[in-house]
Structure prediction request, 366 residues.
Amino acid sequence: MATVLTLAGDGIGPEIMAQAINVLKRVNETFDLGLTLEEGLIGGVAIDATGEPLPEETLTRARAADAVLLGAVGGPKWDAIERSKRPERGLLKIRSALGLFANLRVAKLYPQLANASSIKPEIIKGLDLLIVRELTGGIYFGEPRGIRTLENGEQQGYNTMVYSTSEIERIGKVAFELAQTRTAASGNPARVCSVDKANVLEVTELWKQTITKMQQADYSDVALSHMYADNACMQLIRDPKQFDVMVTGNMFGDILSDEAAMLTGSIGMLPSASLDEAGKGMYEPCHGSAPDIAGQDKANPLATILSVAMMLRYTFKQEAAAQAIEQAVSDVLDDGLRTPDILDKTEAGLTQVGCQQMGEAVLAKL
Ligand code: NAI
Ligand code: MG
Prediction:
């Protein structure tokens, strides 16, 4: 029997998680998935209870679970704590301890929300792109790192960007295989764009060579292109529909995935997955704990609910259940229900709802 560990965290975390759990329980029954749900502590609530942002017990249970569903962590209450003990550190720690090297972020435009984006509707209409970001290597983890004092008394900060071929190959494999899966579902040709800065960084020259060799050897059915990171930033705004799957390293992926997320309007709509080599994963909304609206029943639970869909798709291989959730979300948007973050006040026929009402509406559609 498979287990899902839910970690609600801080701020709006408990509110959005309650709705996501209801959805997960419902599909668990209707699709007979046989999942067992458990709850655990992470972030500020874990600090308050145990003194640690990621208690050993949580990590042990996360390792034993087949998937983790996370809300969000952090908030002003814990901002005065020293950096290494803050809620956000718990999140970094669980990602690296579980070996979650592949971060998947979907930027998909729900046509009902075409006016919520700052980009012209015709440029983003039909947008559905996937960014595959390497999450446990590159400049965020490379050694040596630090701030040192030079002989002349000046200070110097330094980080190191490193990628070995095995690290590039395992993230490349995820990207190529997802491109193949997406083609099977959409009927569009499989495309991967690998983003690097091979013109100036040797480490990304190796990245480019390695991805190219993989495509030639094993993925000749996938069309591969390469793009420099700075150009990719421009192209995402100019013509985002030219992309299907983008694969890149940790830092470029951090920047590009936030940029891609914003094409679709609200951060309250965007789910993410972080996977290990066995397909086990942690699923979470892209947004944070939103302390400004916490406890007010204003948060949009759809990013977390859509993260449940990603979990069913990628870890449990339950495509029908995943699609049922995505369809239910689309249906409530069709009905004109909007949490404040996606409410277009100039559009007629919309109904403003709270977090709980939105979650209940999705349940009703299911
Ligand atoms: P944030 O994503 O929490 O909020 C940014 C803005 O988006 C706020 O105006 C917020 O109200 C809004 N927002 C976010 N999620 C929403 C939702 N579901 N529905 C409606 N509106 C939503 O980012 P911010 O303000 O930079 O950080 C707040 C706290 O969250 C900090 O302590 C930060 O460290 C933490 N954080 C945690 C993350 C995580 O747990 N994965 C990621 C990002 C930030
Ligand atoms: Mg980021």
